[in-house]
Fold this sequence. Notes:
By secondary structure, the chain is α+β, with helices and mostly antiparallel strands.
Amino acid sequence: MSALPSSIPGQPCAVSPALEALLLQSNLRVDIVAELQYCGSWFLEEPRYHCGLFHLVGTGNCQVESKAIGLRMELAAGDLVVLPHGDPHRLRATTHEDDATSLICGELHFPAHARHPLSHALPPCFTVRSSEAGDMFGQLANMMVQVSQSRQPGRQVLLNKLADTLFALAVCDYASRNVERQGLFAALADARICKVLHAVHEKPGEPWTMPSMAALACMSRSAFAERFTQLMHMPPMQYVTQWRVSVAEKLLRERQLSVASIAERLGYASEAAFRRLFKRVSGISPGAVRADALAA
Length: 296
């Protein structure tokens, strides 16, 4: 994921350092898979997908409908709708018969084997309104539309890079606006737990223990464990392990470090211990992840 400034003009509040660190370390791939142009009356029926989906309205207007939303929502040019879990949905025309509607559609690929905090914290569907999300979001959405309409060399690479940043902005917009926070976003709203998450996300290889995390949060061990588990729906040390496995999967797929180097970077005493833990948590061996990345 792309880096974000700690404060975004036009946004209601600053991006949490813990969320920024998570996005920077995240093994999340964003791909543009379709650029669609419609005129007149049309509808697009999307079944359940194995990955997350999003649609950016380039021009015109349309309507999105899904059981995940529970109602129909109108989308205007520059608006983004995100379905992080790939829920079935329908897009239909609401523009005048003579007006055109264009869509830029993409996929969100969370780590295939590690439990990613974002995939469990995001709702089935959320939207980002260009008119409310600030200048940076609007400019980026416009740039994507311009690149999509151009014959720029390397346009697919550019679109994927821009979409990666657009999704990061969308997550930050959701985090700052949504009042019914759950999981990760609820924890980010708690200053003490957020401080611990930031440290864990930035330095997953530190020798984290319950006492060290509780001390960082300025809480007793029992109070910290209870509060963390209440917000994140898992104990602190389990979260540390899950996050290390998620980071390890990213490093394995990048194929720049040996398995032994990754184990050392993430704080494991031996490569064998790391291999056992990785397979126990993810259900697949580090070698299989690396082979899958090589085949891809």
